[in-house]
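Researcher: Please translate sequence to structure tokens.
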Amino acid sequence: MNNRAPQSNIHHRIFDEIESTQTFLRSALKNHDCNNDPSQFHLVTSEFQTGGHGRKNNEWIDFGQNYSLAFSLSLPETLIKESSIPISFLPLVIGESIVQFFQNFHSQSSEQLFLKWPNDIFIVPSPIHQKPVEQKVGGIICHNENSQIIVGIGLNLLSPNASQRPHPQFPHGFIFHSDDACKTFVTRVQNSSLVTDECRALAVRHFLPRVYFHFLINFLNENFQKIKDGIQKSMLFVDVDVTLEEDQKIIAGKFLGVGPWGECLLEINGEVKSFTNGTLRKLK
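Model: Translation complete:
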């Protein structure tokens, strides 16, 4: 990868606690509280987020400490256009960059990250049990504000003790199965060439998003066809019978992957149809 922008071009705002990094950054850009210089990138991180939300305003629960990451960043529209990436494809491109980021520094091959259309990160646990179940570990949300694309990312890193859980029934999974695995990953990131001394001194909740943002900027410099090929390989449920819940309708078909604009392609009665919205589920 070519270094497209140095880390010094990332304007990083750090909070102890915030309602929503996404809401804060959207408001700051809308009200011109941020520098809209096309060469300036913005990042907002916090030790704890109290009112995070995902697609369709679904609640996103923040475990705090080093158990999860919740952050928002901005990308100039001009950067996306220069990369030949359709805006509608961006959540999947961001998702693929996250998959690649963790694969670069996480050596354990028994658990692998996948994408689930349109904007989720899933993990498939190692087949200790006869039927390992795919589990959601993160999500991505994108907004447009003043010629900037604002990207909100939430990731579950590690399961806290039951007594520390802020929600009695948390159905999602976690990227790391143990504290040691998480610490090893962080150490590998800290020792990478992407990290400056200033960045290395930050707490994990601020340090990892900062390094990932630099990784993402470089990732966007890759050939878009290569990125699309990676997305197709990372996609869950390809050639599997699924249902798509869209506008209170349930549509059944075989998932073929994504089209040229990031749309969902379903084969229904021998005909390929495309969908731009909805929730994809494996047919039971």
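Researcher: Any highlights?
Model: The helical segments are 21-30, 77-82, 90-105, 179-190, 197-200, 204-219, 224-234.
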